[in-house]
Structure formats: structure tokens, C-alpha cells
Write a structure and sequence with these properties.
alpha/beta, Rossmann fold, eight-stranded mixed beta sheet, about 15% strand
Length: about 350
């Protein structure tokens, strides 16, 4: 006679599922306000849900004209949104453009901006879309967006090209891509701990997954981001003021969405072809790397030097990911000398 499993056991497999679903709902409510109707009805062009469906709890303010009223610098409207920038130095000098990294806006260039301007150079720095006081457009944050932003910014400010470019971390990716795509618009290129090549980062891989990334960055992302920035320093003396400035942008809606979209579009790991293209150009390149860099390990500099063999390389001792910020007396001298040739 065939033994039949009691019906009550059929529910056993549903209990863990119900628990997980309940946990997800709880964390969602704690981490952010979810537009559930949008989740059910909306998908992106590749049928994956994105961070644009969520309102993260820490983002309590809207970035508008009133919130920008007391911000330093100036603003210009481009096709994808308003862009925050600062420019200084003699108007008849060639312009040096400073491009910041993944999440820290243009204040990361404070010692460099001041040092280069004081040396007599004309210098432009700006906030990338999604960062600082620049808009957070509801678009894919991919390499094309950041390239278009820089092209339009130079045109809008009527800046004569070719310019000199300096890119930090992800700003190095944007600068390398820009140089590869528009070689006639760049004279000299400086890279400081540039991203763009694959590195082993487990957390990055996890947050790239839809919903998982929203949960992690929504629930504890603020502290996670702040803590990770402290590791950019080889020495802790300047950390507190640096982090206080960083927290300002975290209040404005769209910040975490922009970071997640940037990660998911591979901006910080997919630039090898552009590095190769720049390496084949007859172009002066300066490469600077903090020997204590934990964000993009110092060993990565070997691969960059292989891809861009003409790069003039300067390792910086007792410095981490932002060597220009920790050692401005060394890095400023290198940049001024390089851009003055």
C-alpha cells in the first residue's frame, strides 16, 4: 500500500519563504520607503528593477534652487541637468580640469585646486552628476553620461581646447575615456590612483544585484560609505573634516541611486580599452599612486603602466587613495611642473 505524506507537511516548505519575505518587508520599510505599486508595474528597459523605485530614508531633502543658494561655486544648466562647478585663475591661461572620483564631490580637490591656482594656472573643477550639488537625473549613470557632461561643460563655459586633464580614481576612468574618445580636446593627462580595471571587491559585486544593493545601502549604506572613506587615508589626521563635508550631499534624494547605477553600469571597472587607446597616443601622461592605497591597490599601477607605457610614474610614500589630499606639497609640485611644460 502506498504511503501518502500528511497534507500538513506541504506547508513546511512555505514557512521559511514566509519568514524571508517578512524579513525583506521589514528591512525595506526600515531602510527606505518603497513605492510598491511602482515595483509591481515598472521595469527598466532590461526588465530589472532599479534604485529609482526607492526613496532612501537618509535622503530627506530635494536638491533645488533653494538648497543651492548657499553653496560655493557656480551652476550651469546642461542637457542632463544642473552642474555645480568652480573655475579660477588667469583667463588667458590653458585650463586644467579636475575630475573627482566615485562618490566624493569636488571638495576632494581642495588642496590641489588652491595649489594650482596659486601657481598661476587656470583650474576648473566640477561635481559629477549624482554627486555634490549637481543634479541626479533619472538616467543610466554610465560612461556616456559622464563623457557627455564634460563635453557639454567645456562648451557651455566656452573653454578653449585642448585642455589638461587630471582624474582621481573614477575620475581617472572618465578622463581616460574622454582622452580616448576626444584626443583633439586633451593636451596632457594626469591620473591619480585611477580606477577602470577589474579588482577583487566582494561588497561591490553584492550591491550590484537588484534589490540587494538597495537593501544594503538603504539600511546601513550611509555609515558604510562614510567608514569606507576613512580607509582612503594612510594617516587619520584630516579624516573628520573630510567626512563632515561628505555627509552634506547624502541628504539629497538620488545620491544612492546614482552610486548604484554607476556600479551596475560598470563605469569603474570597464576602461581597459580606453587605457590601451591612450597608451597608443603620442600624449604625455603623469601617473601618481599612494603606496598605501587600499581602495585601488598600489599593485594595480603595474597594469596601468603596461597599458600606458609612456606614463611618467611617481609612487607617493605614506599616502593612501587620495595622495594629492594627504601630500599636497609633493603632488601639487608634480602637477604644476607637468602641466607647465
Amino acid at each position: 500500500m502506498e504511503n501518502k505524506r500528511p497534507k500538513r507537511r506541504r506547508w513546511g516548505c512555505l514557512i521559511p519563504t514566509a519568514i524571508l519575505l517578512g524579513l525583506f518587508l521589514f528591512l525595506s520599510i526600515m531602510a527606505f520607503q518603497v513605492r510598491w505599486r511602482s515595483i509591481l508595474l515598472s521595469t527598466t528597459k532590461d526588465n530589472t528593477m532599479t534604485a529609482s523605485l526607492f526613496h532612501f530614508r537618509g535622503e530627506t531633502k530635494v536638491l533645488d534652487e533653494a538648497s543651492r543658494a548657499d553653496a560655493p561655486g557656480e551652476f550651469v544648466q546642461l542637457s542632463d541637468g544642473m552642474v555645480h562647478y568652480q573655475i579660477a585663475g588667469p583667463a588667458d591661461e590653458r585650463t586644467v580640469v579636475l575630475v573627482h572620483g566615485f562618490s566624493v564631490p569636488y571638495y576632494v580637490w581642495d588642496p590641489t585646486f588652491e595649489g594650482l591656482v596659486d601657481s598661476g594656472l587656470r583650474v576648473l573643477r566640477y561635481d559629477l552628476y549624482g554627486r555634490g550639488y549637481s543634479d541626479r537625473p533619472k538616467v543610466d549613470f554610465d560612461a556616456d553620461l559622464f563623457d557627455r557632461q564634460l563635453v557639454e561643460l567645456l562648451e557651455a563655459l566656452d573653454i578653449e581646447t585642448p585642455v589638461d586633464l587630471a582624474g582621481l580614481s573614477m575620475g581617472g576612468v572618465i578622463s581616460v575615456n574622454f582622452t580616448a574618445r576626444h584626443p583633439e580636446m586633451v593636451r596632457r593627462l594626469a591620473l591619480i590612483s585611477p580606477a577602470g580595471l577589474p579588482i577583487d571587491n566582494s561588497l561591490k559585486k553584492i550591491v550590484e544585484f537588484p534589490l540587494i544593493g538597495e537593501l544594503i545601502l538603504g539600511f546601513g549604506g550611509g555609515q558604510l560609505l562614510v567608514s569606507s572613506l576613512a580607509e582612503d587615508f594612510a594617516t587619520p589626521e584630516a579624516v573628520d573634516q573630510y567626512l563632515d563635508q561628505y555627509r552634506v550631499q547624502m541628504q539629497y534624494q538620488g545620491f544612492i541611486r546614482a552610486l548604484l547605477s554607476t556600479l551596475r553600469n560598470g563605469v569603474i571597472t570597464s576602461a581597459e580599452s580606453s587605457y590601451k587607446a591612450v597608451g597608443q597616443q603620442d600624449r604625455p601622461v603623469l601617473l601618481i599612486w599612494g603606496m598605501g592605497d587600499k581602495a585601488i591597490p598600489f599593485e594595480t599601477s603595474e597594469q596601468v603602466r603596461w597599458l600606458i607605457p609612456q606614463a611618467e610614474f611617481h609612487p607617493i610614500e605614506d599616502a593612501g587613495h587620495i595622495s594629492h589630499y594627504e601630500k599636497p606639497e609633493i603632488v601639487n609640485s608634480l602637477l604644476v611642473e607637468f602641466f607647465s611644460r
